Amino acid sequence: MNKIRNICIIAHVDHGKTTLVDHLLRQSGTFSERAALEDRVMDSMDLERERGITIQAKNAAIQYKDTRINIVDTPGHSDFGGEVERILGMVDGSVLLVDAAEGPLPQTRFVLQKSLERGHRVILCINKVDRPECSDGLRTKEVVNQAFDLFIDLGASEEQADFPIIYACARHGWCTMNPDEIPDLIAGKSKGSLQPLFDLVVNTIPQPKVGAEPGFQMMVANLGYSDFVGRLAIGRILSGSLAVGHRAYRLGVDDNLKEIVEPFTVTKLFRFSGLAQAEVKVLEAGDVGVIGGLDSFDIGDTIAGEEITLRLPRIEVNKPTLGMIFSVNTSPFSGRDGEAVQSRKLRERLLREVRHNVAVKFEETGAMDQFRILGRGELQFAILIEQMRRENMEFMVGRPEVLLRKENGVKMEPLERATLDLPEEFASDVTRMFQERKGILMSYEAVGTHSGPTGSQNRIRLEFEIPTRGLLGMRTKYLTATKGEGLFSSQMIGYTEWKGEMLHRLNGALISDRDGVGVEYALLNLDDRGMMFIKPGVEVYEGMIIGEFNKENDLNVNPCREKKLTNVRAAGSDHYEALKGIREMGLERCIEWLEQDEWIEVTPKNIRMRKKILKLNQRSIIRRTEDS
């Protein structure tokens, strides 16, 4: 056990966690020098590679000298905070990455707080010290001071607050504990490596603690799957040892949360070697291991060597703040692109997601073909929807709804701290946008001069306290207002009294009043009524949303009207006209735009928006606030 260290890499999104793990794996000798490795090798999911973010926590292990280091790479986006919370129990310490220019951001606070609550020793790694904004070293010093203030603010113990600091450029695979060496390392005058970080992990992070239980005990913190073995339970062995062929027990719960004991025979045991799983005969206390032999493993289960072993507390994560309805597809185009799933299959798929992801919850609704999923944020829902889409499923989803609660008879809603990093010239417009959504400006801070596409610009950091309702649909508006140069992140900080009515979307929808095919002539005539979402040649149906109206109410229109042909040619009437613009509506943009009386129809090939009531004569064109 003295030769084992269990650590996780935690940080705000895009601060360099996965890149750092890449170089740790390379420089530890885990892979041969000739092995061809992709960048961000830990991001194994297609969606992770496409979006450039980590979605699921991953395990790896490296051998440094005579010490085995188990590493967990965690997500940085706040919507996937549940992944961080459940994984922290597997490790004894953390490497906290902070961008040398951006400094600590909301998710930095969240992951650090969870790590400190666990009693972890934390190594502070100031990453991206080669950024131009940090060339004089002053910004880097400011960030170190901000990080120290954050430790104190979060109630770090005296030992935790005395954290070691290392400066790194993960992209180029070097680090140093001496800030004076940074200029030479950036210029290439001296060659660096990650050896100082390896040494720091071995000397700073404590060896694994072993529980007092005499028998084998492991908490399942992650799940895997093998075509040959079936479902695999991944977790840290807290006490005892386990060998292949031994009898073991799954201490879990059934669908009704009733405690159960399920015996099984261990068929395979693995531990991590690099990114792969190496088969072993015995797992020992302190290590991170993988167990095969049962297809009903669930996250939060206790794997025990004896039936009477004490159950470990199940993994608890912060409660969800948003809910979204998933429904069977009732569109006229149902079944054209993929599999039009029945309610039973949709329910089974959602329950499977809940078993794998402790941060989401499942609820029945009054309708037999509709189910509610509770989660953390719009991105978390978008990832789940995209995964189901790629499984050839067709279904519909509604607008995310904020989960309210009552305290002493008072209606309360979730409150978030939004941190915005943007060029100073856009400050007034952005402030007005957030104040219109009931946001209160808490902090206005200059963060130096950054180089942007239009040259150097003064950047500022704004902090708002704003209801979660106010943030729904704000990301795209914010990026538009800052011309794509703004950074946006948020973290839930508690509950506040209901802030009153809030209109989610200012403009109404352009709605097709019939079935048919969109015609260019008709769309050109509708061009001055708003912004189109569809191109000519796209099939439409009655009740389908084809664009955004430039007034407050909805408008029913005919996008299929063709030009009447006569044998009389009008002089000059045949000149070419083009649509002013078509807004591409991806999944996340649709989720942001959606209103309460609308659905998003999701199929493997198309994403459409429609009214819940399709028939023109059965719905009103007058839009109401969310409370009306």
C-alpha Rg (nearest Å): 27 Å
Number of helices: 15
Overall domain count: 5
Per the CATH scheme, the topology name of the largest domain is Rossmann fold
Strand content: 25-35%
* Overall pLDDT score: 85
The largest β sheet comes out as: 12 strands, mixed
Helix content: 10-25%
Class from secondary-structure proportions: alpha+beta
Q: What low-confidence regions span 5 or more consecutive residues with pLDDT below 50?
A: none
- List how many beta strands DSSP finds: 36
CATH class of the largest domain: Alpha Beta
What's the CATH superfamily of the largest domain, by name? Answer: P-loop containing nucleotide triphosphate hydrolases
- Overall form: globular
Terminus-to-terminus distance: 62 Å
- CATH 2nd-level architecture of the largest domain: 3-Layer(aba) Sandwich
Keywords:
5 domains, 21% helix, Rossmann fold, alpha+beta, 8-stranded antiparallel β-sheet, 12-stranded mixed β-sheet, Elongation Factor Tu (Ef-tu), domain 3, 628 residues, 15 helices, Alpha-Beta Plaits
Structural commentary:
The chain has 628 residues and is of the alpha+beta class. It folds into five domains: 4-204, P-loop containing nucleotide triphosphate hydrolases (Rossmann fold, 3-Layer(aba) Sandwich), CATH 3.40.50; 217-304, Beta Barrel (Elongation Factor Tu (Ef-tu), domain 3); 322-397, Elongation Factor G (Translational Gtpase), domain 3 (Alpha-Beta Plaits, 2-Layer Sandwich), CATH 3.30.70.870; 405-497, Alpha-Beta Plaits, CATH 3.30.70.240; 509-618, bipa protein (OB fold (Dihydrolipoamide Acetyltransferase, E2P), Beta Barrel), CATH 2.40.50.250. Strands 18, 19, 20, 21, 22, 23, 29, 31, 33, 34, 35 and 36 form a twelve-stranded mixed beta sheet that branches. An eight-stranded antiparallel beta sheet has the order 12-11-17-8-9-16-13-14, with no helix packed on it. Strands 2-3-1-4-5-6-7 form a seven-stranded mixed beta sheet, sandwiched between helices. β8 and β9 form a beta hairpin. The radius of gyration is 27 Å and the shape is globular.
